[in-house]
Amino acid sequence: MAVRRRTVLGGMLAGAAAVATSGCLADSSADTPAEQSTPTKPGPGGLPAPGGPKPPARITVVATGDVLLHERLWTTAKRDGKGGQWDFAPLLSSVKPLVQQADLAIAHLETPLARAGGPYRGYPLFQGPPQIVAALKQTGYDLCTTASNHSFDGGSAGVDRTLDLLDKAALKHAGTARSRAEAEGTTIVDVHGVKVASLSFTFGFNGLPYPNGETWRAALISAKTIKRKAQEARDRGAELVLVSCHWGTEYSNKLNDQQRAIGPELLADSNIDLVIGHHAHVVQPMQEIDGKWIAYGLGNLVAAHREPASRKAEGLLTRFTFTRNPDGNGNRWRTEAAYAPLLMTDDLPVRVLDVRRELAGHTSRRARLRLAQRRTTETVAALGAHPGLV
User: What is the value of pTM for the model shown?
Assistant: First the structure.
């Protein structure tokens, strides 16, 4: 497998004055050429140009759903760790090959993280073990979106600590912010020479107020605000703009009014290339509109709802392949979508499984895996979309 190499554009461009629903995104695009780093090799589909690497004709993005650290997952990390250390990487080992094959891999870190040693908390005010960050990095993730209804569970300290931990592990992030300046920036990742922006928004905060009245701490879903932030991302050099929305009705695979109203409106904006959704903790449909895609709900990447027979144990890994349109007409990129059904086990140690990979081998879970595959396939196609399989 080829080693993926990506760089992130550093520096911070001054944005417009922040408003209550401004995009809250880390790591802005560079404001001077010296701050922009160059990939060490072109990506797939690109050929070296005489003066340096040529941006590739194609890149792949993998996105998965919520990372929700219930107590049962702490027990798993304790059991999997060595020398008293907690280790969440074995929990994710089945999806690691799929994640590492992507040029850019995105997870949704739904909850704030505590200090090492805790105290850790589960529902309703989460503060999870920070060891999950190293596991996400080891699995191959590059970026975490963080705007969710649990963003303020740990107050401002929880937001700051979580983003500090992601920075320390060299995981980029979008959705919450430590400062007004960070909120006014835009996360733009250099993927083999292609500048990809990540924007992250949520429907609400479970009734919790903005910490200290700091309304720039996280961004609420608003079509007007999202489209403005997408335009800013373009102005700052982004060639692809990916929007993450924490939305939907919990435990329902049906779209709610907000999703039905805002999803197609966002995708109709010429500055937005992809919409990725999560929060419902079950798989929701995918939809293709004029050659662009919405994945309304990816379910969980990891969680432990303790309902192993229910849809809550099923998730979705999505892969989007972006290919440049050579004539420059219409959409800048042509997008192909594919997916892989996932299943969380309940017995210790807990694991998230790549359903098709498990079914190809010897397994005692065949009936449950087949149920997950059938239900996920039916849900993904409920709006008439027919993505491929990863």
Answer: 0.88
